[in-house]
Design goal:
The chain is 40% helix and 13% strand. It has eleven helices and ten strands. The chain has an eight-stranded parallel sheet with strand order 3-4-5-6-7-8-9-10. A two-stranded antiparallel ribbon has the order 1-2. The longest helix is centred in the middle third of the chain and has 15 residues. The radius of gyration is 18 Å and the shape is globular.
Length: 281
């Protein structure tokens, strides 16, 4: 049971990953992302999730450089974007990300989406990066079970993490079960569904019972399902609120009721939608 901000998920290679991180998607490079990270670090966060797509890796790097938190205590994630996939292309994209971040290594490097015909070649590049010690862990994002099975069939190293859209409207229980069986840590992006379900009566009722907010209830549900979570915010009080989830526990009934809100409803793209990938061909 996760009871402290110091608790960590242990990846299958032994690397320890914080259960809660700050997502910085759409945080503007420069002062906005730097200030958000400073607030997060002051609040106890040690994990920051960015990507080349977000165009704020330089700001993330500056915030890290200006922080008093030792680099070895931080967990920094970035991702290779779809238009950069392929073996040589991914190696070049990783070098560019490291340079923008101003780091010698990242803690986790992910394939952002399973681009058809590309992700296996891209994974070979991630294996090389991992074997060179320039990423402490490697993984994927937005992979469904069939993508994972296809990747693992030819991989030398099994992904350590699968970061996917995950919230009470999209519980992906079969994928979560599969990842647990495979020793792949599931991680939730857009866990709060941009606040669209904060007025959901079930969540409001459970939040009132625990004297917490609906956001805190959802994030606690993530942790108790064994899912790492990376809520994004650029607002100080929300950043602080989102990590204040270690002093209570949801009951089994609470967990069941929240999971029952599932509608298999995606807010982002479907990883199997061929139209989504046409722009990267």
């Amino acid at each position: 049971m996760v009871t402290s901000v110091h608790d960590r998920a242990v990846l299958h290679n032994g690397v320890q990953m914080p259960w809660v991180g700050l997502g910085v998607y759409k945080a503007e490079d420069g002062d906005e992302v730097i200030q958000s990270i400073k607030w997060a670090l002051d609040a106890g966060y040690r994990s920051i999730d960015t990507a080349s797509l977000y165009n704020n890796e330089a700001g993330v790097g500056q915030a890290i450089a200006e922080s008093d938190v030792p680099r070895e205590d931080l967990f920094i994630t970035t991702k290779v974007w779809n238009s950069d996939q392929g073996f040589d292309e991914t190696l070049a994209a990783f070098d560019a990300s490291l340079e923008r971040l101003g780091l010698e290594y990242v803690d986790l490097y992910l394939i952002h989406w399973p681009v058809p015909g590309k992700y296996k070649e891209t994974w070979k590049a991630l294996e090389k990066i991992y074997n060179e010690g320039r990423a402490k862990a490697i993984g994927v994002s937005n992979f469904k079970q069939h993508h994972l099975e296809d990747l693992i069939a030819d991989a030398e190293i099994k992904p350590m993490v699968n970061q996917v859209e995950y919230h009470p409207r999209l519980t992906q229980e079969d994928l979560l079960t599969y990842c647990k069986q495979q020793g792949i840590q599931l991680e939730a992006w857009r866990p709060l569904l941009k606040g669209e379900i904060f007025e959901e009566p079930t969540l409001v009722e459970i939040a009132d019972k625990h004297n917490k907010t609906a956001a805190q209830i959802i994030l606690r549900w993530d942790l108790q399902n064994g899912v790492v979570t990376i809520p994004k915010s650029i607002t100080q009080h929300r950043i602080e609120e989102n990590i204040d989830i270690y002093d209570f526990e949801l009951t089994n009934e609470d967990m069941t009721r929240i999971s029952a809100l599932n509608q298999d409803k995606r807010n982002g793209a479907d990883p199997d939608d061929p139209e989504f990938y046409k722009q990267f061909e």
